[in-house]
Amino acid sequence: MLWPLPQVLAHRCGGALAPENTLAGLEVAVKHGCRGVEFDVMLSADGFPLLIHDETLERTTSGHGEVSRHTLAQLRKLDAGSWFDAPFAAERLPTLDEALARCAALGLAVNLEIKPAAGFEHQTGRVVADHLLRGRANGVPGLVISSFEDASLAAAMEILPGAIYGLLVEDLPEDWASRAAGLGVHAIHVCADALDAAQARTVRDSGYHLAVYTENDAERAKALLRMGVETVITDFPDRVRASDMFPA
């Protein structure tokens, strides 16, 4: 199976250069030459998938409390940009469908991380997969679905078995191979700081694709690519530039 993601992805839409998980971040990613982005998807109280990382609203919006206790209508009223910088005050939490449509229009590949609130692992996986099944990602040049949650991946695979899936881990646990095989994923996504050359070789030799997060040093990113990593997710697409990343 061909790997559909480019070598460099902007983390949470625009990395540290825009309010995270917003449509503005997608524009910033393109401005800095990215051909792909990573973003997080969670459910509202009424079951709509939208982009946000935290289970609570305080850090990246004007709201308070748990995302899963607010309806989509309530969440859409929140300011998701002012915390970053005043010019982004008009930013709102985008729905998954809006984000995918914008990525398609901008020619951005997507690493979609299923980021369920606690207790919603299965439901979030199914809802995300259902939206994708209904063609919401049409026109997106590449798509990988990843998650730390085995239950979310398994639920998504029930609905959308033909997609490409990645198992997210912080470091490479001893049981990574059995977990990956049991789930039927195609890739391992691991913290860049926790990966060494021997581990990278083991993952690739085992037949899995390999991505890392979140590497913000250009030279380290190049070294990771030489180790066999196929995609580097970064907060600083202006530093870790796709045009500079091709291994020597």
UniProtKB/TrEMBL annotation:
GO terms for biological process: lipid metabolic process. InterPro entries: GP_PDE_dom (IPR030395), PLC-like_Pdiesterase_TIM-brl (IPR017946). GO terms for molecular function: phosphoric diester hydrolase activity. It comes from the Bacteria. PANTHER family: GLYCEROPHOSPHODIESTER PHOSPHODIESTERASE, CYTOPLASMIC, GLYCEROPHOSPHORYL DIESTER PHOSPHODIESTERASE. Pfam families: GDPD. This is Glycerophosphodiester phosphodiesterase. Residues 6-244 form the GP-PDE domain. It comes from Parazoarcus communis.
